[in-house]
Amino acid sequence: MTQSPKRYPASNVEHFLSSAFSSLGVPAKDAASVAQLMVQADLMGYDTHGSFRLRQYVNRLRDGGNNPVASVHTAIDSGATAVVDGDNGLGHLAMSYASELAVKKARTHGIGWIGVRNSNHAGPASLYVNKVAEHDMIGLVAAVGSANHVAPFGGLDLMLGTNPLAIAIPAGTSAPFVLDMATTTAAAGKIKVLAQRGEQMPEGWMVDREGNPLTDPTRQDEGLLLPIGGAKGYGLAMAIGLMAGTLNGAAFGSDVVNFSKETTTPTNTGQFVAAISIEAFGDLQTFKNTADQIFTAFQGSTPFPGHSPIRIPGQGRGDEQQDRQDNGIPLHPNLVKTLADIAIELNIPDLSDA
Q1: pLDDT single digits (tens) 311-332
Q2: According to the UniProt record, where is the region Disordered (predicted)?
Q3: Which of 68, 247, 250, 259 has a beta carbon 3.0–4.6 Å from 26's, enabling a disulfide?
């Protein structure tokens, strides 16, 4: 029988997450910042990248794989570009720093491109492109996945991650265009969530090493995630790996550390954040008004028979966020149990008492 999720106030979840990080030696300001971003992911509906990830973060902080007192800093500054060193801290800290720096540079140079190294898993990429779009700029974010689940096209050796890409483009009265996608047919986090909930995967997400469909998420380690568009997705994932990993002196390919399994080893995760100033190309308001018109035209186009009305990428996130803010974040009972186990382990108040 499918278990129904119970809703918890966002403030309770945020306090619980912050308490967990603080108990592991993360400074209060950093703990609060990461907790806020994780809850933001939950509120936006990214159930695979919010509080669901606490178990993995706790394991790495507890076992020494992550630095709880990281000093994020700019390692290389070259005008419109820079490289940020995350000091092996929680990835949210490095990516927030990089996002702010990208916007600052774009104001001066028209574009800011910030590479990140010595980082870690940082939640959904949309968190950071949204930070850029809030400043009326176009945001791009990409990352080397935190574990290799994908083989080169036609191969069997796992050498690529889900290597996500996100793009946010602001509009006028419309919500921003926000594309946040893995370069695989499904994000690895979705498979982890299905495994926790005892549910099956659809065919087409993974295959076993004989090429047969794999639908049991608990057997993820036995198979390969499939890239979007076959060879095209493979090529895109590799390009992202070279730009977000190799270019920044971060891990890519066989150097990638599985952050879920290797809890004592630094991952040297690579990411990048780019901010593009719309004003560097012309009038900002004209662009935003035109974007509104384009969005309206797309939404008004004729849908395929039986298909729902056309949507713009990112459309509907605001409504979901408001619902979860007003009525609480839905957490599956199995996740709640995991969080309760963490509370006991860390000797902090349970989520219900946060």
Answers
A1: 999 998 888 999 999 999 999 9
A2: 299-331
A3: 68
Place of tokens 């796992």: 158
Q: What topology does CATH give the domain 1-63+318-354?
A: Hypothetical Oxidoreductase Yiak; Chain: A, domain 1 (1.10.1530)
DSSP for 118-183, please give it.
EE---S-THHHHHHHHTTTEEEEEEE--SS--BPPTT--S--B----EEEEE--SSSPPEEEEE-S
Residues of the chain with CATH 1.10.1530.10: 1-63+318-354
What is the rounded CA–CA span in Å between residue 127 and residue 24?
Answer: 24
Contact at 8 Å (CB) between 236 and 183?
yes
Share of the chain above pLDDT 90, in %: 92
Q: What is the pTM of this model?
A: 0.94
Task: Give me the architecture of the 70-184+227-315 domain, per CATH.
Answer: 2-Layer Sandwich (3.30)
Considering only the C-alpha atoms of the chain, give the largest distance between any 2 of them, rounded to a whole number of Å: 57
Cα 36 to the center of its chain, rounded Å: 14
Partnered with residue 206 across adjacent β-strands are 214, 225
Lookup: tokens for 213: 């469909």
Give the HSE-up count for residue 114: Cα atoms under 13 Å, Cβ half-sphere: 30
- Report the alpha-carbon distance of residue 2 to residue 90 in Å, rounded: 33
